[in-house]
Amino acid sequence: MNEFRIITDYLKKLTKNNPSAIDLNDDVFFNKKKKLVVSVDTYNQKIHFLNFKKPYLVIKKVLRGSISDIVSKGVYPNYYFLSASLKKNSLNNKKLNEIIKSLKEEQNIYNIKLSGGDTTLSNTNSFTVMTVGFSNKIVKRNNCKLNDDIYVTGNIGDSYIGLCLLKKKFKNINNNLKKYFTKKYYLPDVPIKLCNYLSKYANSSIDVSDGLFDDMNKLLNKQKLNYIINLDKIPVSKNFEHVIQNYRLNKLLYISKGDDYQTLFTAPKHFRSKIINLSKKVNQKITLIGCVSNISNNKLMKGKKSINLRNFKGYSHKF
Description:
The protein is 32% helix and 23% strand. By secondary structure, it is α+β, with helices and mostly antiparallel strands. It has two domains: 132 residues, CATH 3.30.1330.10; 159 residues, PurM-like C-terminal domain (Phosphoribosyl-aminoimidazole Synthetase, Chain A, domain 2, Alpha-Beta Complex). Strands 7-9-6-10-8-11-12 form a seven-stranded mixed sheet, with helices on both faces. Strands 1-2-5-3-4 form a five-stranded mixed sheet, covered by helices on one side. Strand 1 and strand 2 form a beta hairpin. Helix 2 runs parallel beside helix 3 and helix 4 crosses helix 5.
C-alpha cells in the first residue's frame, strides 16, 4: 500500500469538516481567514539521507527540502519547528556545534526562525520539520487549466547524480564534478525569489520532490487533463550533460527521481512574456517545458517521437 492510497482511502475522510486541510490533497494546510500556511515533512536516515556523518550538510538538506513546500505555494516561510529522533551516541559536542552552525546559516539565508520542536531517543535518525508562513492566498495543486504552459525552475537531475556518487555508483569522476553534484544533493537551490510573484501568474504549483513526472501527475491529479512535455526542454546543467554523455547514461532515469526541490507550475499562455521577464528580473532560471492538454494520455516528446514513461517512476513510500 502506498502513501497516497493511505491518504485518499483512510485519512481524507477525517478532514470532512476542515476545509483548511484541502482534502489532504496539497502540500500545505491553509487557513485563509487567519492567513496561516503550514507544512510538515519527515526525513529518515537511509531513505532521505544516507547517514549522519555530516550533520552540517544533512540539516541543510532537511530544512531546505521542508521549506520548499511552502515556497512552491508562493509563500515565504517565517518560522520552523524542528524535531529530532536520534540513535544513542549519535550526538557529541562537535556534531551539535555543526548542527547549530548549519541552522544559523539557513536562518540567515531564508529569514526563518526556530520556534520549537522536540528531541527523542530512537533506533534510527529522523528529523521532522514543521514550517509556518502567512499569506491570504496560495497557489494550489489541481488547478491547472487547459492549454496552460508548464514551467519548472532551476535544473533537474543534479541531486540524483549526487546521490549516485555518494553511493559510489560512478567511478573516475573528477573531484570538481564530485563536489558539484554532492553540493546539489545536500544544498538544493530552493527558488524562494519567486514567492512574491508566483500567485500573480501560476494557476497551479508543486515542488519537485518525488520526481518531475510523478509530481506533474500529482499537479493534475483528477482533473481529466494530461500533459505534453518536451524532453529536450527540461533544464539540466552542463555538468549533468557531461556525465550523461561520458557515461552513456539514460537521461530520463536521472531527471525522474526527484530530490530537486524546484517549483513546477502551470500558467496561462498570455503570461509567457511576463514570466520570461520575471526570470531575468529576479535572476531565477525558469524554463517552459510543455503544456496542459486534453489528449487521452500524458506524453513525453523527443522531437516527434513519444517516449513511454512506464519505466521512469519517481519515489513513492510503500508500506
